[in-house]
C-alpha cells in the first residue's frame, strides 16, 4: 500500500485527497469550505420550498384545484395546439398527420371558425421522443393556453402526455389506432381501438379458413399488447398461434425471423412491425419465395404512405386492416382527397391516421358547438353522441370511453400502391377499449 | 484575478442566478424546464471530469443516467401504488405481480442509497474490466456506446417490468409530496439547482486534489504514470465512477421533474447528446460543461420549437466548428484570442491527444 | 436440418453485410486511428445513389451495376472532402474526430431528409436477383448470395490492392510505422487521403448493396454503424483478416442467438460476448505487432 510499489500494481495511494502532498500545484488550496455555499443554499431552498402539499395532507385536494385553465376566449380567435414529430424517426409518419390537421384548420377557418372564432394554431415538434411530447404538451397547456391539443402517434408519446393532460385538466385528440386498454376523460381517441381493427382482422383470417397464425412485430408496447390480446382471442376461436417474434425498432436483418416463420407451418401472418423494419421484412419475405396468395400477411401499421417506401413489387396483394383507405367511395372522401391534393400536391396520398386527425378537429368543433363553450368540463359533457360525416363514413363519439364508432375495413394492396377494400364490417363498430364485451378477454386489463 | 477568486466568483454568481434571479423571473413552466436542464448539466459535470480531465470519451453516460432515473421511477411507481400495491403498467402488460427485485425499492432509503451506489458500482466493475486490460481511447468510446445501445434494447424488451418503450411515467407524488402542486415542483427545482452546485464544488475539490493532478497525468501520458508506480486503471476507474454517480443523480431528479423516463432518454443518441454541451462549453473547465449543457438544452428547446430541421443543422455545425477549431470549447474563446495577439503560434492542446488507438506505436 | 442450414446461411449473410459495412472503417480506423461516425451516412449516400441512378436508368439490373460504381465514387468523394476539410486538421486528436464526424453525420442525415424527403424511397431489385436458389434443400435468397459474393469480391480486391500495388505497400508501411515510412520518402499525407477515399468508397458500395435488403431512408446508416464499429474493435486493426473473421464470427453468433432466443436479447448477448472477448484479447483478433505498451 505504500507509494514505493513498482510497476502497474494496484497501488492507489491512500493519501490521494490529502492536503499535505501537494508538490505540483501550490496556488490553489481548497478546503471543505467549498461545500458550504451549495449546502447552505440547499438548506435554504428546502426551507423556503418545503411547504407544498403532501399527499397525506388532504385527500380531497385534487390536482385540478392547482391548475385553473388559462384559455382565453375573450377575443375573436381561439388557440389550439398541434403536437406532432417533425424531426426524428417518426417524422415520416407524423408530418402527414400535421398536413391534414392544417387542412382541417384552414377549412374550418374559411367556413367561419368555431363559435365564430378563428382558430389560431400553435404548432410544436414532438421530436419523436416521449419526453419531448410531455414537455411540449405542458408548454401548450400552461404557457400557450390552448383550448385543445391534437397529435401524438406512438403509444409511448400518448402515455407520456396522458398524465400531463389529466393533471392540467386539458384535452388531447389522438388520431392513431392503438392497442386499447385505455380510456382517459381528457383524451379523445379518433383512431381505432382493438375491437375496431385488430379483432376484425383476425375474424377475417378465420373466415378465410386460416387456423395457424404467426405473429411478428416490433419490440414495443403496441405489438406486445396487441399480440397478448390476439393470443387470448385465438384461445377462444380454435386458432393456433404458431409463433410470436419481435424485432428491435430499427432492426434491419430479418433472415432469422423469416426462417422461423417458414419453419412454423403458419398459414397466415399478422404483422405489427413499425417503420423501416417493414421494408426489410417484406423484401426478405419476397426473396425467400413467400407470397401473398399462399401465405398472406395482414399488417396494421402499413398505410398508403408506407407502400411506396417498401416497394410496391414487394408488398402487392398483401392485406391491411384499417378504417379508411384513399379509395373509399363516398362524396365526403372525394372532397377530402381532392382538397388535400390541391393543397399538398397531386402525388400525395391520404391514409387512415391522416383521416382520423382531420376528423378529430371537426369532432372537436362539433363538441364545442354542442356545448357552446370551449371549457373542458362542458365539452366532456357534450361529447357523447356528437357525429361527423367523415371521409371514412359517419362517425359517432362514445361519451363513456371517448372513442368513436368506426367501420372496420380489410384492404388489399393494389399494383398502383393504393389499398382497396376487400371486406368491411356490418356498419360502424362500437368502441370497446377494454374488450368488456368479450368473455375471452377477461383478465387482460 | 486568481483562479481561486474566479471560481468562487463564478459559484456565487451561479448561486445567485439559480436561487434568486431565475425563480423570480421565470414562470412555473420555464422554471421546471430549467430544473430539467440542471439535471442534464449534472451529467455534463461528470463527463467534464471523466473526459475533460481523464481523457475517457464516455459515450454511454445514458446508461447511468437511465439507471438513476429508472431506480427513482420504480420507487415512485411503487409508492404511488401504496403498500403492497402493484404499479398500473404491470397490471396492464405483466401478470399483475411485482417482481422480487422491485420490492426493495418500496423503501425510500434503499432507493436513494441504490441511486448513489449502484451506478457507481456498475461503472467500477465495467471500468476495472476495461481499463485493467488497457482498453482505451477509441476502443473504450465504442464499447461504452455499444453499452448504451444494449441497455436501451434491454429496457425496451422487458416491457412487463420496465414499461418498454413507454418507459415509466404518471407519477403522483415524490417522497410524499404531491407532484401536481406547483410549490412542490418549485422545491424540486431548488433541489436540482442545489445538487448541481454541490457537484460543481465536489469536482472542483477533486480537480485540485492530488488525485486530480494524477488524473490529468494519466490523460496526457498514461505510460509515464505507470512507470512512476501508479496504476492508471484505478485512477481512471475513480473518475469514471464519479461521473456515473453524477449521471445517476441527474437521472434520478430528471424523473420526477420531467415526469417520465423512457428508453429514448438513455440510448446512443441522448448519450452523445450529453457530450454536445460539454464539448461546446469547454470539457476541461469547471463551469464550462454546466454552462454548455444548460445553454445547448435551452437553445434546443427554443430553436426547435420554430425550426425543427434548422436546429439539427445548427447542432451539427456547432459540433463541427467547436470541436475542430475550439477544442477547449467556447469557454476558451477569450483566452485563445488573447494568446493569438501575444504569440500567434500555439494552438491549444488540452485535448488528450496521443494516438490512443491500441497497436499504434507511441 | 433445414433450419440449421438456413440459419447457418443467415449468419453468413449477416456477416457479409457487417463486413461490407465495416470494411471501409477497418481501413480508415486501422490506418489513421480516425473514428468516422459519418461512415454510416456515406453508406446512406450510396443507397440514395442507387435510387437516383434507377431514376435515370430504368433497367434495374444495369442500374444496380452502374450504381455500384457510382456509389463507390460518391462515397469516396464525400470521404475525400471530409478528410481534406476537417480530418486532416485533427490527426493528433483521434477522439475528437469522433465528435466532429458525428456532427457531419447529423448534417448529412438532415440534408438527405430535406432533399429526398423523410419517407423511405424504393429501389427495385433486378429480376435476376428475385427469388431463391435451392442449396442443400433450402431456399437461399439470391440477393443475399449476391451480397455475399460482393463482400468477397471487395475483400479480395482490397487484399490484392494492399498486397501487390505500390499504393498498398505505402499504406502498409504507413500503418506499421508512420515515422519510418515518412523518412523513407512516402508521402503519408497523400497516402492517408487515398486510404480515406477508398475506405469511404467501400461504404458507398455497401450502401448500394443494402438497398437489396432493407429500407432506403435518411437513417439507413445509423442502423449499421454501431455494429460495424464492434466488428472493427473485435477484429483488431491493421489487417483485413481480423475484420473478415470478426464480421462472419459475429454474424453467425448473432444469428445463432437470435434463433435460440429473441432478436432483442441477441443484441444484448452479443455485447456481453464482445466485452468478455476483449478481456481475453484487448487488441482484437489480429493486430500488428508493435513495441508499444498498450
From TrEMBL, chain B:
UniProt keyword annotation of Ubl conjugation present: no
Protein name: Urea ABC transporter permease subunit UrtC
InterPro entries: ABC_transp_permease (IPR001851), ABC_transptr_urea_perm_UrtC (IPR017778), LivM-like (IPR043428)
UniProt-annotated location(s): Cell membrane
Keyword list, A-Z: Cell membrane, Membrane, Transmembrane, Transmembrane helix
Membrane-traversing stretches: 7-27, 33-51, 58-76, 109-131, 138-157, 163-180, 187-207, 237-261, 273-298, 310-333
PANTHER family: HIGH-AFFINITY BRANCHED-CHAIN AMINO ACID TRANSPORT SYSTEM PERMEASE (PTHR30482), SLR1201 PROTEIN (PTHR30482:SF4)
Source organism (scientific name): Cellulomonas humilata
Domain of life (superkingdom): Bacteria
One annotated GO molecular function: branched-chain amino acid transmembrane transporter activity
Keyword Transcription found: no
From TrEMBL, chain C:
Membrane topology of this protein: Multi-pass membrane protein
Keyword Transit peptide assigned: no
Keyword Cell inner membrane: no
Keywords: Amino-acid transport, Cell membrane, Membrane, Transmembrane, Transmembrane helix, Transport
Top-level taxonomic group: Bacteria
Cellular component annotations (GO), alphabetically ordered: plasma membrane
Transmembrane segments: 6-30, 64-82, 94-112, 145-162, 194-216, 228-253, 265-282
MF terms (GO), sorted A to Z: transmembrane transporter activity
Annotated localization: Cell membrane
Principal subcellular localization: membrane
Protein's recorded name: Urea ABC transporter permease subunit UrtB
Originating species: Cellulomonas humilata
Source taxonomy: Bacteria, Bacillati, Actinomycetota, Actinomycetes, Micrococcales
Amino acid at each position: 500500500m505504500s507509494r514505493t510499489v513498482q510497476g502497474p500494481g494496484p497501488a492507489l495511494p491512500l493519501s490521494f485527497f490529502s492536503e499535505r502532498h501537494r508538490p505540483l500545484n501550490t496556488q490553489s488550496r481548497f478546503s471543505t469550505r467549498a461545500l458550504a455555499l451549495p449546502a447552505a443554499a440547499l438548506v435554504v431552498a428546502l426551507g423556503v420550498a418545503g411547504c407544498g402539499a403532501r399527499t397525506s395532507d388532504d385527500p380531497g385536494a385534487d390536482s385540478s384545484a392547482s391548475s385553473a385553465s388559462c384559455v382565453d376566449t375573450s377575443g375573436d380567435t381561439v388557440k389550439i395546439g398541434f403536437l406532432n414529430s417533425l424531426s426524428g424517426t417518426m417524422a415520416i409518419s407524423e408530418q402527414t398527420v400535421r398536413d391534414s390537421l392544417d387542412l382541417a384548420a384552414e377549412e374550418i377557418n374559411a367556413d367561419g371558425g368555431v363559435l365564430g372564432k378563428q382558430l389560431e394554431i400553435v404548432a410544436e415538434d414532438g421530436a419523436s421522443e416521449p419526453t419531448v411530447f410531455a414537455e411540449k404538451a405542458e408548454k401548450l397547456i400552461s404557457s400557450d393556453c390552448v383550448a385543445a391539443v391534437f397529435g401524438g402517434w406512438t403509444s409511448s408519446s400518448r402515455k407520456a402526455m396522458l398524465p400531463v393532460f389529466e393533471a392540467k385538466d386539458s384535452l388531447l385528440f389522438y388520431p392513431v389506432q392503438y392497442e386499447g386498454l385505455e380510456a382517459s376523460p381528457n383524451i379523445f381517441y379518433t383512431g381505432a381501438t382493438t375491437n375496431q381493427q385488430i379483432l376484425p382482422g383476425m375474424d377475417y383470417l378465420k373466415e378465410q379458413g386460416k387456423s395457424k397464425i404467426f405473429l411478428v412485430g416490433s419490440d414495443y408496447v403496441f405489438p406486445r399488447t396487441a399480440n397478448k390480446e390476439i393470443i387470448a382471442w385465438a384461445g377462444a376461436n380454435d386458432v393456433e398461434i404458431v409463433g410470436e417474434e419481435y424485432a428491435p425498432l430499427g432492426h434491419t436483418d430479418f433472415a432469422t425471423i423469416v426462417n422461423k416463420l417458414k419453419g412454423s407451418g403458419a398459414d397466415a401472418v399478422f404483422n405489427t412491425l413499425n417503420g423501416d423494419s417493414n421494408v426489410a421484412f417484406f423484401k426478405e419475405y419476397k426473396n425467400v419465395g413467400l407470397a401473398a396468395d399462399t401465405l398472406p400477411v395482414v399488417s396494421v401499421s402499413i398505410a398508403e404512405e408506407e407502400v411506396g417506401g417498401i416497394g410496391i413489387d414487394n408488398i402487392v396483394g398483401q392485406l391491411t386492416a384499417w378504417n379508411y383507405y384513399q379509395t373509399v367511395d363516398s362524396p365526403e372522401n372525394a372532397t377530402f382527397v381532392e382538397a388535400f391534393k390541391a393543397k399538398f400536391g397531386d402525388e400525395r396520398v391520404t391514409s387512415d391516421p391522416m383521416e382520423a386527425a382531420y376528423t378529430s378537429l371537426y369532432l372537436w368543433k362539433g363538441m364545442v358547438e354542442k356545448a357552446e363553450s370551449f371549457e373542458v368540463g362542458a365539452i366532456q359533457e357534450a361529447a357523447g353522441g356528437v357525429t361527423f360525416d367523415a371521409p371514412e363514413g359517419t362517425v359517432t363519439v362514445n361519451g363513456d370511453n371517448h372513442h368513436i364508432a368506426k367501420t372496420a375495413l380489410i384492404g388489399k394492396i393494389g399494383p398502383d400502391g393504393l389499398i382497396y377494400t376487400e371486406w368491411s364490417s356490418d356498419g360502424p363498430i362500437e368502441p370497446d377499449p377494454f374488450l368488456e364485451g368479450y368473455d375471452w378477454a377477461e383478465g387482460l386489463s | 484575478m486568481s483562479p481561486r477568486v474566479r471560481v468562487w466568483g463564478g459559484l456565487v454568481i451561479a448561486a445567485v442566478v439559480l436561487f434568486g434571479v431565475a425563480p423570480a423571473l421565470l414562470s412555473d413552466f420555464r422554471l421546471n424546464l430549467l430544473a430539467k436542464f440542471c439535471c442534464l448539466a449534472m451529467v455534463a459535470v461528470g463527463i467534464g471530469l471523466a473526459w475533460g480531465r481523464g481523457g475517457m470519451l464516455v459515450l454511454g453516460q445514458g446508461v447511468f443516467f437511465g439507471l438513476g432515473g429508472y431506480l427513482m421511477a420504480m420507487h415512485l411507481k411503487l409508492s404511488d401504488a401504496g403498500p403492497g400495491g402493484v404499479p398500473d403498467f404491470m397490471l396492464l402488460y405483466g401478470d399483475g405481480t411485482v417482481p422480487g427485485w422491485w420490492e426493495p425499492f418500496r423503501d425510500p432509503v434503499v432507493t436513494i442509497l441504490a441511486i448513489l451506489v449502484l451506478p457507481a458500482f456498475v461503472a467500477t466493475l465495467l471500468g476495472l474490466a476495461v481499463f485493467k486490460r488497457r482498453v482505451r481511447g477509441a476502443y473504450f468510446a465504442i464499447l461504452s456506446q455499444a453499452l448504451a445501445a444494449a441497455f436501451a434494447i434491454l429496457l425496451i424488451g422487458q416491457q412487463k417490468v420496465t414499461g418498454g418503450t413507454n418507459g415509466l411515467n404518471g407519477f403522483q407524488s415524490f417522497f410524499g409530496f404531491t407532484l401536481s402542486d406547483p410549490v412542490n415542483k418549485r422545491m424540486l427545482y431548488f433541489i436540482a439547482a442545489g445538487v448541481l452546485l454541490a457537484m460543481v464544488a465536489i469536482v472542483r475539490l477533486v480537480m485540485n486534489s492530488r488525485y486530480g493532478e494524477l488524473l490529468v497525468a494519466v490523460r496526457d501520458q498514461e505510460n509515464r504514470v505507470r512507470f512512476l508506480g501508479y496504476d492508471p486503471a484505478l485512477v481512471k476507474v475513480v473518475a469514471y465512477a464519479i461521473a456515473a454517480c453524477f449521471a445517476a443523480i441527474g437521472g434520478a431528479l430528471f424523473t420526477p421533474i420531467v415526469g417520465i423516463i423512457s428508453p429514448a432518454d438513455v440510448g446512443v443518441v441522448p448519450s452523445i447528446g450529453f457530450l454536445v454541451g460539454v464539448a461546446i462549453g469547454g470539457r476541461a473547465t469547471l463551469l464550462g460543461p454546466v454552462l454548455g449543457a444548460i445553454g445547448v438544452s435551452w437553445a434546443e428547446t427554443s430553436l426547435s420549437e420554430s425550426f425543427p430541421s434548422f436546429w439539427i443543422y445548427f447542432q451539427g455545425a456547432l459540433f463541427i466548428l467547436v470541436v475542430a477549431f475550439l477544442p477547449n470549447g467556447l469557454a476558451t474563446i477569450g483566452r485563445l484570442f488573447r494568446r493569438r495577439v501575444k504569440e500567434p503560434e500555439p494552438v491549444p492542446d488540452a485535448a488528450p491527444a496521443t494516438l490512443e488507438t491500441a497497436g499504434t506505436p507511441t | 436440418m433445414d433450419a440449421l442450414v438456413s440459419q447457418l446461411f443467415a449468419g453468413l449473410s449477416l456477416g457479409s453485410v457487417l463486413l461490407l459495412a465495416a470494411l471501409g472503417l477497418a481501413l480508415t480506423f486501422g490506418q489513421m486511428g480516425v473514428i468516422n461516425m459519418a461512415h454510416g451516412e456515406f453508406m446512406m449516400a450510396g443507397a440514395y445513389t442507387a435510387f437516383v441512378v434507377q431514376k435515370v436508368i430504368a433497367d434495374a439490373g444495369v442500374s444496380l451495376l452502374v450504381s455500384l460504381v457510382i456509389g463507390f465514387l460518391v462515397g469516396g468523394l464525400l470521404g475525400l472532402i471530409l478528410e481534406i476539410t476537417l480530418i486532416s486538421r485533427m490527426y493528433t486528436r483521434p477522439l475528437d474526430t469522433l465528435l466532429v464526424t458525428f456532427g457531419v453525420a447529423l448534417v448529412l442525415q438532415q440534408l438527405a431528409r430535406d432533399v429526398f424527403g423523410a419517407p423511405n424511397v424504393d429501389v427495385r431489385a433486378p429480376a435476376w436477383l428475385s427469388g431463391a436458389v435451392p442449396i442443400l434443400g433450402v431456399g437461399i435468397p439470391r440477393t443475399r448470395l449476391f451480397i455475399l459474393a460482393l463482400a468477397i469480391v471487395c475483400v479480395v480486391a482490397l487484399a490484392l490492392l494492399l498486397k501487390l500495388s505500390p499504393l498498398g505497400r505505402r499504406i502498409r508501411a504507413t500503418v506499421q510505422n508512420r515515422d519510418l515510412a515518412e523518412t523513407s520518402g512516402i508521402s503519408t499525407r497523400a497516402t492517408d487521403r487515398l486510404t480515406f477515399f477508398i475506405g469511404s468508397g467501400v461504404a458507398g458500395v455497401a450502401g448500394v448493396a443494402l438497398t437489396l435488403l432493407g429500407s432506403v431512408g435518411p437513417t439507413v446508416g445509423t442502423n449499421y454503424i454501431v455494429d460495424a464499429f464492434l466488428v472493427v474493435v473485435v477484429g483488431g486493426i491493421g489487417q483485413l483478416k481480423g475484420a473478415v473473421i470478426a464480421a462472419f464470427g459475429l454474424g453467425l453468433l448473432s444469428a445463432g442467438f437470435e434463433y435460440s432466443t429473441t432478436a432483442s436479447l441477441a443484441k444484448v448477448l452479443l455485447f456481453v460476448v464482445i466485452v468478455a472477448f476483449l478481456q481475453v484479447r484487448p487488441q482484437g483478433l489480429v493486430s500488428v505487432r508493435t513495441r508499444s505498451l498498450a
